[in-house]
Specification:
The structure holds two protein chains of two kinds.
Chain A (H helix, E strand, L loop, with lengths): L22 H32 L10 H10 L1 H35 L1 H16 L2 H12 L3 H25 L3 H9 L4 H37 L6 H8 L5 H29 L1 H12 L1
Helix pairs in contact in A: 2-10, 3-4, 3-6, 3-8, 3-9, 4-6, 5-6, 6-8, 8-9, 8-10, 9-10
Chain B lengths: L1 H22 L8 E6 L9 H8 L2 H4 L2 E6 L7 H6 L5 E4 L1 H9 L4 E8 L4 E6 L14 E4 L5 H11 L9 E4 L4 H6 L5 E6 L3 H7 L4 E5 L11 E6 H6 L1 H20 L1 H11 L6 H15 L11 H13 L9 H4 L9
Parallel strand pairs in B: 1-2, 1-3, 6-7, 6-8
Antiparallel strand pairs in B: 3-10, 4-10, 5-8, 5-9
The chains are: A mainly alpha, B alpha/beta.
């Protein structure tokens, strides 16, 4: 490896040690962070529970939160089996979309010809209603895991490509010129300037992609599957087990939020300079 | 002047419409507006309803009936149970499953008195009877009641049961699944519809009817309403069923004339090439010798309920006798 490979990224701010937060302070900040959302959820659940109980709404029409919670407890084994299937579909599909999305974005950012050739198709891919294509995919590739992964990847790759392209194209021209005067080639400029600049953009795209991946997996399961939370919902509906449908929705939401947070954590670890910069900006 | 009076009139009309659709009944005028949710897109199964509509049988009973296909036909029993729709078309197994979960729906008439559900395989596959399915893939729309249907057929023909086949959820695209050879047979397909679609595309099929392989005879399609409608508006139900009965009697007499009416009523949205042979197959099922059309056989309800319970699909507390009633068939 040549020496410039180990130099810090040009786009990065000088590294600064983050201020040491005392444990109590961090805990308070955390509760302060989550409290408003938690309060809203509690109030909504309370209203929901009260409404169902006061008006004696039958549970096949709208189950109370307590009934849904009971279902989560009683049928946890069944729910867990199907949750794991959906999780695998989401993770593999997301991984595939990450790989394809980043490669596509690099190609588009690197060459105007590729951009003109590919970008219209990237956009067109999002105009195709996935719910119509999904049943066809099943017939083409079978009813296993593959069609679900393809549906997840199809829904998730778009925000990744768009954000990554924007990131790669938003480099600081001064930094590029500086490196050029120092004799850097295209590849070095790409690795030293463009990639680090694009990472925060990429992670924004990844968070959106993660959120839609879960929906993609359910769509994939909805049109034809033998396992997964989407399958469980289709099976529960004709049996009028509305509370189980809601239990599956709860799990899907929790899964989506957890994966979203996970992407945020990875982002903080992967591009610490960006977060330091953000923190300093907010301190100023 | 006319444009001035137009708005109050329209508002009044809207109000009356709201009143009628919410109550479904107008005490002083004997008129009623009713909404009927179909089980699926209009097809040959609904001939009698479209005949009653187009020939004015509903109107003669002072009923204004709206026939419509819900966005999601699997919710018919919920919308009827909650009173959003006055009537709905559903299936005998589903009515029983709904009642097990407390949905207050009751079948007031049998529209198709035998199973239409069947197992269908391509003739080229060599599958001619349930036993031939052992070790094969069977596609179905993930509807739970289809599983014991197939299981019973397999056992009746000497196989062990469901464990001998691989069930594949193919959604509602049963025909493409079979034609693409992704599955060797399909269950949940009607011998009055999917079999015709397949043969029209040049693929001769073997149809295995469920009641010929050990499954108790049941009502494929029933007309349902909810318990509170039965209590509050029995007279309207009687009038409504009288019109429906006349419609289906006409359909049994001349099914092809019925298809003409269906085509007209749906603005030719349906495929004539499928519905004509379908109606020809259905007409014999609508012909009733002794009892008036729509009357339900208590023994059939009882035996099918017991079969569902024996297969662990239905809670033991559900009583067949609560799920249907014939009391609206007396006044002819």
């Amino acid at each position: 490896m040549s020496p410039p490979d180990r130099a810090p990224p040009v786009a990065a701010q000088p590294a600064m040690a983050p201020p040491v937060t005392p444990y109590i302070g961090r805990w308070r900040r955390l509760t302060g962070h989550w409290m408003p959302a938690a309060l809203i959820v509690l109030v909504l659940l309370g209203v929901w529970e009260g409404y169902v109980r006061l008006w004696a709404v039958p549970k096949w029409l709208l189950p109370a939160p307590s009934v849904i919670a009971m279902t989560l407890v009683v049928s946890w084994e069944l729910l867990l089996d199907h949750t794991l299937v959906t999780l695998v579909e989401v993770v593999i599909g997301f991984g595939l979309s990450l790989l394809c999305g980043v490669l596509l974005a690099c190609g588009i950012a690197a060459s105007r010809t590729l951009e003109r050739a590919l970008y219209p198709f990237v956009i067109a891919s999002q105009m195709v209603p996935i719910i119509v294509v999904a049943p066809l995919l099943l017939i083409w590739v079978g009813y296993g895991l593959t069609p679900k992964i393809i549906v997840v990847a199809l829904t998730a790759f778009f925000p990744i490509v768009v954000n990554m392209v924007d990131g790669l194209q938003s480099v600081d021209p001064d930094a590029v010129n500086l490196l050029r005067t120092m004799g850097a080639n295209h590849w070095q400029i790409f690795i030293k300037v463009q990639v680090p600049t694009s990472l925060p953009f990429l992670f924004s795209g990844l968070r959106v992609a993660m959120a839609v991946s879960v929906i993609g997996a359910v769509i994939g399961e909805w049109v034809g599957s033998s396992q997964g939370l989407g399958y469980l919902m289709i099976r529960s509906k004709p049996q009028f087990l509305t509370e189980r449908v809601f239990a599956a929705i709860v799990i899907l939401s929790v899964m989506g939020i957890a994966l979203f947070v996970l992407v945020g954590v990875i982002e903080k670890l992967a591009i610490p300079w960006w977060h330091n910069e953000q923190r300093q900006r907010s301190l100023r | 002047m006319s444009q001035y009076t137009c708005r109050p009139a329209m508002l009044c009309g809207l109000f009356v419409l709201l009143l009628l659709t919410s109550g479904g009944y107008c005490a002083h005028a004997q008129n009623a507006t009713l909404k009927l949710a179909l089980d699926w897109y209009p097809n040959a199964n609904h001939l009698g309803l479209y005949i009653a509509q187009e020939k004015g049988y509903f109107r003669q009973e002072n009923l204004a009936v709206t026939l419509y296909t819900p966005v999601d036909p699997s919710t018919v029993l919920q919308t009827v149970g909650s009173g959003t729709d006055d009537f709905g078309i559903s299936y005998q197994p589903d009515v029983l499953l709904a009642r097990a979960q407390g949905v207050p729906v009751v079948s007031v008439a049998g529209l198709v008195p035998h199973p239409l559900n069947s197992v269908i395989a391509l003739q080229s596959s060599g599958i001619a009877r349930p036993r031939d399915l052992v070790g094969k893939k069977v596609g179905y729309p993930a509807i739970p009641t289809n599983e014991p249907l197939l299981g019973t057929m397999l056992k009746t023909d000497g196989a062990r049961g469901l464990q001998d086949v691989e069930l594949v959820n193919v959604g509602f695209d049963l025909v493409p699944a079979l034609l693409s050879r992704r599955v060797d047979a399909i269950v949940g397909a009607y011998w009055t519809h999917e079999s015709i679609v397949l043969e029209k595309q040049g693929h001769p099929v073997h149809v295995m009817r469920v009641e010929e392989w050990g499954v108790p005879d049941y009502y494929e399609l029933v007309l349902v309403t909810n318990e509170s409608t039965i209590k509050s508006k029995p007279e309207i139900i009687t009038r409504f069923l009288r019109a429906v009965r006349r419609g289906y009697e006409d359909a049994a007499q001349d099914p092809q004339a019925g298809v003409d009416i269906l085509l007209k009523g749906t603005k030719a949205e349906v495929d004539e090439k499928i519905e004509r042979p379908g109606a020809a197959l259905l007409a014999p099922l609508w012909k009733t010798d002794k009892t008036p059309f729509g009357t339900q056989d208590a023994a059939k309800w009882e035996s099918f309920t017991q079969w569902l319970q024996a297969n662990g699909l239905l809670a033991p507390h559900v009583k067949a006798g609560d799920a249907f009633t014939n009391r609206f068939h007396s006044g002819n």
